[in-house]
Amino acid sequence: MTTPDGIVSALSVALARQRESHEDCPLFNDPYAQVFIDAALNRGCDLPTDEASQRIDSIANYASSRTKWFDEFFIAAGAHGIEQMVIVAAGLDARAWRLPWVNGTTVYEIDHPGVLSFKNDALREHGDTPAVSRYVPVAADLFDDWPDVLRDNGFDVTEPTAWAVEGLLPYLADGPHLLFDRIDELSAPGSRLAVEAVGTGVADWLAGRGWQVTTMGAQELLTRYGRCGDHGGADTQADTVFVDAKRVR
Ligand code: SAM
C-alpha cells in the first residue's frame, strides 16, 4: 500500500505513546498506539526511520508529558461543561477512544483523508469503538475549507468548543495565522484552546484577540510531571510554549 500523506509523522508520535505505555510508571496508557503500529506493518506502510526512532527516544519524556498535558486539558474542558471538542491534525491520537468523556460529548478530528481512514479502519478491524457519544472524522487539508465541512457535520458555532493543536505547527510554517483566525471565528464565549507552539507569537496573537492566555515552557512541563533529567529533551524544545487559552467574550 502507498503510505498516506502524514502517516509517518503521525506514527512517530504513536511510537512514543506506545513506548510510554510500557514504562514502569506511565503517565498514561495508550493501547491503541500498538494497534496502529501493527496495522502499519501489516499494510506495508513506511515506518519512521531508525534516525526518527532515535530522535523519538531522545525526547521521550517531553513527548509523554505533552500527551499528558493535552489529556488533562480535555478532561478539564469536559468538567467545565464543554461538550464540543475539536482535535486539529489529530493524526493517530486516540483520545476519542481512551479518555473518560462526559456523556453527550462530540469529538471532531481533522486530518488528511488517508490518515483518518487508516486510523478508523485499524481501530474498527481491531474491534474498538470510540468512547464519546459522537465521533466525527473531518477529512480535510487545513489549508482548505475545513470550517464548512465541520459545520456541515453538525459543529455548532454558538456552543463553546475545546480545541487542541498538538504536534502540528512545524508543518504549518507558512500558514499558522490562517488556522488561528479560523479557530477564533468558530469559538463561542467559554471556548478553550490548547496549543503546543514555538515561541510566544501564538500566545500574543490570542491575547490580542481577547483570549485569556496562560503559558508554560517545556522545562516547566517536564518538572510538573516529574520527567526532568535524562531523555527529557528540554534542550531541543527550548522555545516550545504550551498555550492554554480561554475565550471570555
Ligand atoms: N496531533 C497528533 C499527535 O500529536 O499525535 C499528530 C501529530 S503528527 C506529528 C502531525 C499530523 O498533522 C499528521 O497526522 C498530519 O497528517 C497532520 N497534518 C499536517 N499538515 C496538515 C494539513 N495541512 N492538513 C491536515 N493535516 C495536516
TrEMBL record:
<protein>
    <recommendedName>
        <fullName>S-adenosyl-L-methionine-dependent methyltransferase</fullName>
        <ecNumber>2.1.1.-</ecNumber>
    </recommendedName>
</protein>
<dbReference type="Pfam" id="PF04072">
    <property type="entry name" value="LCM"/>
</dbReference>
<keyword id="KW-0949">S-adenosyl-L-methionine</keyword>
<keyword id="KW-0489">Methyltransferase</keyword>
<comment type="function">
    <text>Exhibits S-adenosyl-L-methionine-dependent methyltransferase activity.</text>
</comment>
<dbReference type="InterPro" id="IPR007213">
    <property type="entry name" value="Ppm1/Ppm2/Tcmp"/>
</dbReference>
<keyword id="KW-0808">Transferase</keyword>
<dbReference type="GO" id="GO:0008168">
    <property type="term" value="F:methyltransferase activity"/>
</dbReference>
<dbReference type="InterPro" id="IPR011610">
    <property type="entry name" value="SAM_mthyl_Trfase_ML2640-like"/>
</dbReference>
<dbReference type="GO" id="GO:0032259">
    <property type="term" value="P:methylation"/>
</dbReference>
<dbReference type="InterPro" id="IPR029063">
    <property type="entry name" value="SAM-dependent_MTases_sf"/>
</dbReference>
<comment type="similarity">
    <text>Belongs to the UPF0677 family.</text>
</comment>
